[in-house]
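Hi Prof. W.,

I finally got the Uridine 5'-monophosphate synthase prediction working! I wasn't sure whether to trim anything, so I left the full sequence exactly as given:
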Amino acid sequence: SRLSLPFSVRADQATNPVAAKLLKIMVAKQSNLCVAADVTSASKLIALAETVGPYVCLFKTHIDIVEDFSAQLIQQLLAAAQKHNFLLIEDRKFADIGHTVSLQYSHGTYKICSWADLVTVHPVPGEGVITGLKSAVADLHRGCFIVVEMSSAGNLTTPSYISSSMEICKKHPDFVVGVVCQTPSTLNNPGLLQLTPGVSLDCQNDGELGQQYNSPEDVIMLRGADIAVVGRGIVQAADPVQAAQEYRTKLWAAYEKRVSS
Ligand code: 5BU
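And this is what came out:
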């Protein structure tokens, strides 16, 4: 299955050029770490990209929380991505009808499609959300992760929702690069990736805000993650660079253990 195959082999089986590129970056950098850069100023966002960039395969933004957004910020992010060899994912969680998401993806303040290699999508509207996003892309060097299951307490992503969402995923292998979930996904295509947030070495949860955490080892070994998303565990650490190095080492060791067992 996907879980026992090395990323190098899976890169050749990707049906999407972005998935292939991401898998190759993971192999080259020995990193299956995605940092969730949840900071509210452009200077903090760029500082993070420049400092933790060498240790991540993927840099995840919520671009709408940046108070001083500008086109220059995007140019700096793209330069950092190029320099440190990582991809950009905007965690927009598109969740509307196809026509609306095509506009949200390519227009407005952020013009996400023009810079983000990847985006996240809620499949709740049905397949049209994917065809809508696809319609906004000229060539297909863009892709999306479908959010099939959330990390938060009391989430509404039931087993039947997860399996219906997986069907949508399988229908668009040219644009979908994988799923975001918490339990080993039934991805039968080794060219697709599982992205898993809710990862921390120190915390179980964030109190009343609903986040639930698992250890790096558990998300890779037990929960089927290919790439783990770490936000506050790195961003709010006393030394974010040292934290990024530690998460990267632990996550990669867990992956190596998984493929060798
Ligand atoms: P944290 O600081 O490690 O808790 O940040 C987790 C990030 O992952 C944050 O940007 C969330 O928006 C994102 N996330 C999540 O936590 N859980 C989910 O199910 C999904 C995204 Br989908």
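The radius of gyration is 17 Å. Does that look reasonable to you?

Thanks,
D.
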